[in-house]
Design goal:
Distance between the termini: 59 Å
Number of helices: 5
Largest sheet: 2 strands, antiparallel
Structural class: mainly alpha
């Protein structure tokens, strides 16, 4: 799809359009919520690009990259949901997380977790560059979740949206661990300096 005009000048005074044309301030919590999901999607795009450039003998990284791109598509649905004020505009079907997506995340989490060694204590975000970027995605996901919760206190948000984002942060935590594990990188264990 060719974009014929990038700028409209409609947002020059700090207002923007929601789905359906409702105008609101760019400082509104609704924009903070879906803007943070968009930020997460960009970080996931960087992670997917990094995975594409990573050496992978058994196609494990390619499968992980495919999962990330699948998640990015779902996050477009989440943004559309959050950008719809349901008190004024009905949701489009594309503004919902497709059925079964939360279960797919849970299945992936369980599968990765089964491959990992037992608990080692609290870990510091880091290890390989790929795992570190995954932790960045996880923390942005948690921030998005907080903004969505704040929005849900005064607006209608489908419960599956919060469930998906909450499960996604769990997925990203385990994904960072499995990336380090598969690349032979030990986790960095938190050392309590107060002992």
């Amino acid at each position: 799809m060719k974009i014929t005009k990038v700028y409209t000048r409609r947002g020059d005074k700090g207002m923007t359009d929601l789905v359906g044309g409702v105008r609101i301030s760019k400082t509104d919590i609704r924009l903070e919520a879906y803007g943070t999901v968009d930020e997460l999607n960009s970080h996931l795009g960087l992670l997917a690009a990094m995975m594409a450039e990573s050496a992978d003998d058994g196609n494990t990284m390619a499968a992980m990259r495919d999962e990330i791109i699948h998640i990015q598509n779902n996050l477009f649905n989440v943004c559309s949901h959050l950008a719809t004020d349901q008190s004024q505009t009905p949701l489009y079907p594309s503004a919902n997380v497709p059925a079964g997506e939360i279960e797919l995340l849970e299945k992936a989490i369980d599968s990765m977790n089964a491959q990992l060694p037992g608990p080692q204590g609290f870990i510091l975000p880091g290890g390989t560059v790929l795992a570190s970027q995954t932790h960045v995605c996880r923390t942005v996901c948690r921030r998005a979740e907080r903004h969505i919760i704040a929005l849900s206190e005064n607006a209608t948000i489908g419960p599956e949206i919060l469930q998906y984002i909450n499960r996604l942060s769990d997925y990203l935590f385990i994904l960072a661990k499995i990336i380090n594990f598969n690349m032979g990188q030990s986790e960095i264990i938190w050392q309590n300096a107060c002992k």
